Structure to design on (1328 residues):
């Protein structure tokens, strides 16, 4: 051991021996500085002296010196040798166990020192030896206290300290228990060898009489230990607790208070164990739950309130932490909670009726408050029972939504009747529980329509009940605020529910309005700002979620106080009032711009606008108020501009002025957009040029939302108010917008192209149109070549080219534009060899670029007319007929794609000769050497056939059987025809009579029954093909056809899934299951019910357990696709399918084989594809069905253990599976954090191996990039784990974090970047 600090330590130790306390303090401070250095090392003899001195300084008479000595303990234990650390711990334990009456300070110092050491060790290696030394000693001290060996024996009971201030046995034991609890919380995994002895001694401690507070500490310690116990020891601990409770609980109701307190401890222990162990405790709920419930019922006298409260709290924890196991027992728990909701032995019904007396004159309610003489008894604790019952009911509702429908009729009336509760904290819990009921009912709306109907039907009674409470004498501001909080949840959860009733005066809203008016006007004494904010928030939500007719009768009552609140000094009140004003605008003009403003509403319009203008014009406003006011004037000007008179000009001027303020400019732009898009077409001539000039400058800013809003506003101004603009204004905006047309930001490029197209369409901007040709057109042509093209940008691009050609501009003629788009060198850039010479990635990019160009060519031709289309087709045919060296290339690729797009939009066979020539060149293209050209030929033939099925569909159908070499490509063409069919089926009687199937009308062309039969015959004939590509195309075609006629085709598919029927061939079953996937993806609202009824056939137990791996993989992929696209279809299937799905993630060693390739051997895993599909499906389910609000909770299915077991292997599996497993783990942290925490030790090891894996020295760039992606994926999962509450207390995880992550020079910088990204993502919100 290095001794670099020994000399310095020697000098410090000499100073510490000084009699001057100041010298001792400074020396101790220097010692602390030395010990905290990372380089601290000392010779064994010096180390021994340091330990002795620190232990001695703990007893220093100076409190400052003693406190510094305590701070020296953690770094000393971390940096000293194992023997020295043990000596320090032993010395502290000796101080803790000191029994003399004059040794109180030593005991306190020992306790504080040990707690400090345990708290500061973290994941340091010293934690292992500290636990090994400390745990047995603490166990021995507690055992000794039971035998009377410490502090005078346990029999000292509650005896206080003697004349010397000594502690009794309970005090010392309590300190030991606190230290043990801290150790169990942070280092439970390191204490496994001590779990059994500690369990024994803690149960013995609970059985002894003593201080109740100390025994509660033993309960807490035992529960904390349970989290790290093995399953066997946890089961034994839970069984022992249940046994003890059964032994002590039977006579508890009639026993002494001491015995009841003892029983309550075991009840508390069961609840605490459920809280710390989560789902692991589930298997013990069945034995514990009935016992606790029976005990709660038996404890019926007034002295048993604490026991009853504890029983209810434990039942609540059972419901929250073990919902699946608790589900069968919930009816009993619900009945108990409903029964004890009204448990109030000191209050009679008559008293309650008097308390609920409603004010006759609400204006005078404050005058009578002082005269009330409510019942008050400080010794009455029955309110704790009622509070616990309320919270138990809330837990049942939130964790088991399926039970709500059954208990709704009982729970809601009972909760409403208990709103007369005299204890305010209980009353607020009742309001919170009612909110939970509404929120849960709304969340299960799709799964339980009956529950939704019950909730809507209960709205009138609910509103009457809460408003009665609002008006009750003595109702506190908190209660009144809770009333509006509940009403806000009601308006949010059930839009329109407040408007039900025979007439306007009988609606639930009518019962709310008088009190709402008083609150908004500040007429409720003592209400405060919080009440007004809550009432305003409710008003806004109600206005937005109800039809205007509901609020029409109440405008005169609500509007004036809202307008007054807009001028309030408190910014939150003012901002919320401004938002309410915005929501009021549709009420003032319910018929839209086409309807006149009602005569009675004109006054409100003026006052609303004046209130908003006052806020917009003021300079010293909070930003929230400014933005709300600007939005309000924008909404008002857009909808009520013709009723505002000269105020409209003032509004426009202020909006222009606010554009110059960096803080308010974004809100001002959005307001201007609303005004510009208004169908009232207000006169903007005075401000439009200045606005355009200002907005054009914003297009240079780096703020992306600002640029997006500016482009939208500019487009609205050009489209609707071109007359107010001048040509130079348009030139300026085009110049700025042109720079945004690039693939660096496709969303901005799309908006810029839309703006340019709008400028071109306006005849009054010739110079600007020329500027578009000069600046935007080259950029747009460049954008065509981008492989990053997105759907919205491509649509804008097509519209832009069409607008240019339609405008007949000199620089953008049809011929010139078509030449640019159809020139392969310009479209594809450099290169342009034969289609077969491109690399895979380059070829894929070329096809994507070619498709973009083809769509633009088709749009340009369509904008000119049929003649242009015909001439273009002739040119393309000639292009394809021209022989080229190498057999074609990108010229042919582009020509084929253009023909396909043109064919989808029009019939290209205007003459027989043209049709023959077209057929000839398309079929010849199937013999091209490159696969890209063959695929393009398939696309072209399919597109042409979609435009003229009678002429070209037979070519496809006849060719599939006649030419096996072209079979796959012709099937691709057939797929294009099916893609082009209309989305909605229409059944003709003739076709139904002829073939029993529906015709598909709409879209580009119909598909009659005869053609459909031919198509189906061919598809079913090829469904058993050995080629996977053929089967996939067939499955997609069958799926899309099934989506249009599920009643006719679902039976056909079902027979092909049955191994005993038409599905004897595994390939046929695989194709049928995959077809169901495409049917789900292509389904419409009309076809969805029939598909839903049959989905289990294709993803159920039979296909998921099929003997063929390919069928199982197809079923898993179909389930995954259904969960992603139509999650509601999958929800009912999950309880049965999820366990089978998780079984597919297991690695089967028999499927792993080694192939000898001569110089080297290659390992092949035949089960990899199935496992990967299963993991991807599990991940999709976590994202859709099992996510918060997804319809079902993971705990309800008891699926967390299965997920974690799968992740345990997946995190160490193949690269592709690891990537998915990391994503799933991060999501699992959000939906099942406690379960992840319990299994954290098993998850850390494979992640550590991933982070420390080394690449081969000759790794290529692709391998390096893949490894970097894997590291980032793993670190994202680590970030999610680190955020878990309690993860920092897990020694294994903290050690992993310090050694493998933050302590690694290679990983630490990457981790910092990932954490920063996660933090930024949390602030900005999840974009997906």
């Amino acid at each position: 051991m290095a001794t670099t600090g020994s000399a310095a330590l020697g000098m410090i130790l000499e100073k510490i021996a000084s009699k001057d306390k100041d010298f001792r303090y400074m020396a101790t401070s220097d010692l602390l500085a030395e010990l905290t250095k990372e380089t601290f090392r000392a010779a064994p003899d010096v180390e021994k002296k340091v330990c002795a001195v620190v232990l001695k300084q703990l007893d220093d008479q100076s409190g400052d010196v003693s406190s510094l000595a305590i701070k020296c303990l953690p770094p000393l234990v971390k940096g000293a040798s194992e023997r020295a650390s043990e000596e320090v711990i032993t010395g502290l334990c000796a101080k803790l166990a000191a029994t003399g009456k004059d040794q109180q300070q030593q005991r306190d110092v020992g306790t504080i020192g040990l707690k400090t050491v345990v708290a500061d060790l973290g994941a340091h290696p010293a934690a292992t030896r500290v636990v090994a030394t400390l745990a047995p000693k603490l166990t021995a001290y507690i055992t000794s206290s039971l035998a009377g060996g410490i502090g005078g024996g346990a029999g000292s009971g509650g005896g206080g300290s003697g004349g010397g201030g000594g502690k009794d046995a309970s005090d010392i034991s309590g300190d030991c228990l606190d230290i043990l609890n801290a150790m169990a919380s942070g280092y439970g995994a390191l204490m496994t060898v001590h779990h059994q002895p500690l369990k024994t001694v803690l149960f013995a401690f609970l059985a002894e009489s003593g201080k109740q507070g100390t025994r509660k500490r033993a309960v807490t310690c035992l529960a904390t230990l349970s989290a790290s116990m093995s399953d066997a020891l946890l089961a034994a601990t839970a069984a022992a607790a249940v046994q003890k409770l059964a032994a002590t609980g039977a006579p508890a109701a009639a026993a002494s208070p001491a015995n009841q307190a003892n029983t309550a401890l075991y009840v508390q222990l069961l609840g605490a164990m459920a809280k710390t162990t989560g789902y692991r405790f589930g298997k013990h709920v069945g034995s514990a739950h009935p016992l606790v419930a029976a005990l709660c019922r038996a404890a019926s006298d007034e002295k048993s309130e604490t026991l009853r409260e504890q029983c209810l709290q434990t039942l609540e924890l059972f419901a929250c932490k073990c919902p699946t196991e608790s589900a069968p027992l919930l009816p009993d728990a619900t009945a108990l909670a409903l029964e004890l909701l009204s448990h109030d032995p000191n209050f009679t019904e008559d008293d309650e009726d008097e308390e609920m007396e409603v004010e006759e004159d609400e204006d005078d309610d404050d005058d009578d408050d002082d005269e009330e003489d409510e019942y008050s008894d400080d010794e009455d604790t029955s309110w704790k029972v009622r509070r616990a019952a309320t919270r138990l009911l809330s837990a049942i509702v939130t964790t088991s939504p399926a039970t709500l429908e059954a208990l709704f009729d009982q729970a809601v009336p009972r909760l409403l009747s208990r709103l007369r509760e005299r204890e305010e904290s209980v009353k607020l819990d009742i309001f919170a529980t009612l909110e939970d009921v509404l929120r849960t009912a709304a969340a299960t709306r799709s799964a339980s329509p009956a529950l939704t109907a019950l909730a809507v039907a209960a709205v009138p009674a609910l509103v009457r009940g809460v408003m009665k409470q609002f008006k009750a004498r003595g109702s506190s501001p908190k209660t009144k605020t809770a009333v509006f909080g509940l009403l806000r949840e009601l308006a949010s959860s059930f839009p329109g529910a407040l408007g039900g009733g025979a007439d306007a005066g009988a609606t639930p809203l009518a019962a709310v309005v008088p009190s709402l008016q008083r609150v908004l006007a500040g007429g409720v004494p003592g209400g405060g700002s919080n009440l007004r904010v809550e009432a305003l928030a409710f008003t806004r939500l109600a206005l937005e979620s109800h039809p205007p007719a509901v609020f029409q009768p109440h405008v005169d009552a609500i509007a004036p106080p809202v307008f007054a609140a807009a001028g309030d000094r408190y910014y939150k009140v003012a901002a919320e009032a401004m938002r309410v004003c915005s929501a009021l605008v549709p009420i003032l003009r319910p018929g839209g711009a086409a309807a006149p403003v009602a005569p009675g509403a004109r006054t409100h319009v003026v006052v609303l606008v004046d209130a908003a203008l006052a806020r917009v014009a003021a300079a010293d406003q909070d930003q929230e108020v400014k933005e709300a006011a600007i939005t309000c004037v924008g909404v008002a000007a857009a909808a009520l501009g013709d009723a505002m008179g000269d105020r409209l000009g003032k509004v426009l001027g202020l909006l222009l002025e606010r554009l110059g303020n960096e803080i308010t400019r974004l809100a001002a732009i959005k307001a201007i957009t609303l005004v510009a898009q208004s169908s009232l077409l207000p006169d903007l001539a005075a401000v439009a040029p200045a606005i355009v000039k200002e907005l054009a400058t914003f297009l240079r800013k780096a703020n992306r939302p600002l640029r997006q809003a500016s482009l939208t506003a500019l487009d609205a101004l050009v489209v609707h108010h071109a007359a107010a603009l001048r040509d130079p204004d348009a030139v300026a905006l085009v110049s700025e917008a042109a720079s945004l047309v690039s693939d660096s930001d496709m969303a901005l490029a799309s908006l810029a192209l839309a703006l340019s197209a709008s400028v071109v369409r306006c005849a009054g901007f010739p110079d600007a149109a020329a500027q578009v040709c000069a600046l935007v057109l080259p950029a747009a042509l460049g954008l065509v070549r981008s492989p990053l093209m997105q759907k919205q940008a491509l649509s804008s691009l097509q519209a832009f080219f069409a607008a240019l050609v339609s405008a007949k501009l000199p620089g953008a003629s049809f011929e010139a534009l078509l030449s640019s788009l159809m020139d392969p060198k310009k479209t594809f850039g450099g290169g342009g060899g034969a289609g077969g010479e491109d690399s895979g990635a380059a070829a894929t990019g070329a096809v994507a670029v070619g498709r973009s160009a083809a769509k633009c060519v088709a749009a340009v031709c369509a904008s000119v007319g049929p003649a242009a289309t015909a001439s273009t087709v002739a040119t393309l045919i000639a292009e394809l007929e021209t022989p080229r060296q190498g057999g074609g290339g990108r010229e042919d690729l582009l020509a084929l794609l253009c023909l396909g797009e043109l064919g989808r939009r029009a019939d290209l066979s205007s003459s027989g000769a043209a049709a023959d020539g077209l057929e000839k060149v398309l079929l010849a293209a199937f013999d091209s050497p490159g696969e890209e050209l063959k695929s393009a030929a398939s696309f072209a033939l399919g597109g042409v056939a979609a435009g003229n099925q009678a002429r070209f569909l037979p070519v496809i159908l006849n060719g599939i059987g006649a030419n096996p070499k072209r079979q796959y490509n012709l099937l691709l063409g057939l797929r294009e025809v099916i893609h082009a069919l209309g989305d909605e089926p229409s059944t003709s009687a003739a076709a139904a009579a002829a073939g029993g199937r529906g015709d598909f009308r709409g879209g580009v062309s119909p598909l009659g029954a005869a053609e459909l039969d031919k198509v189906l015959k061919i598809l079913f004939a090829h469904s058993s093909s050995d080629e996977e590509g053929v089967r996939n195309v067939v499955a997609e075609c069958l799926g899309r056809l099934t989506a249009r006629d599920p009643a006719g085709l679902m039976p056909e598919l079902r027979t092909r899934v049955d191994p005993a029927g038409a599905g004897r061939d595994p390939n046929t079953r695989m194709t049928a299951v995959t077809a169901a996937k495409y049917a789900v993806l292509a389904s419409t609202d009309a076809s969805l019910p029939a598909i839903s009824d049959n989905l289990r056939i294709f993803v159920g137990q039979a296909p998921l357990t099929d003997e063929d791996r390919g069928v199982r993989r197809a079923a898993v992929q179909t389930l995954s696709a259904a969960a992603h696209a139509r999650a509601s279809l999958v929800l009912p299937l999950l309880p049965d399918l999820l366990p089978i799905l998780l079984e597919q993630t297991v690695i089967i060693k028999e499927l792993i084989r080694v192939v000898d390739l001569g110089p080297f051997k290659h390992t092949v895993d035949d089960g990899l594809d199935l496992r990967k599909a299963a993991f991807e499906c599990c991940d999709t389910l976590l994202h859709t069905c099992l996510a918060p609000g997804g319809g079902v909770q993971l705990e309800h299915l008891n699926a967390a253990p299965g997920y974690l077991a799968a992740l345990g292997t997946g995190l160490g599996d193949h690269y592709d599976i690891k990537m998915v497993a990391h994503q799933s783990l991060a999501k699992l942290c959000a939906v099942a954090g406690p379960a992840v925490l319990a299994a954290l030790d098993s998850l850390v090891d494979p992640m550590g191996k991933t982070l420390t894996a080394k690449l081969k020295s000759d790794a290529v760039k692709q391998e390096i990039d893949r490894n970097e992606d894997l590291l980032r994926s793993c670190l994202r999962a680590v970030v999610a784990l680190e955020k878990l509450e309690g993860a920092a207390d897990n020694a294994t995880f903290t050690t992993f974090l310090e050694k493998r992550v933050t302590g690694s020079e290679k990983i630490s910088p990457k981790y910092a970047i990932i954490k920063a990204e996660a933090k930024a993502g949390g602030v900005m919100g999840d974009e997906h």
Observations:
- The chain has a mean pLDDT of 85.
- The CA atoms of residues 1208 and 1243 lie 6 Å apart.
- The longest strand covers residues 1152-1156.
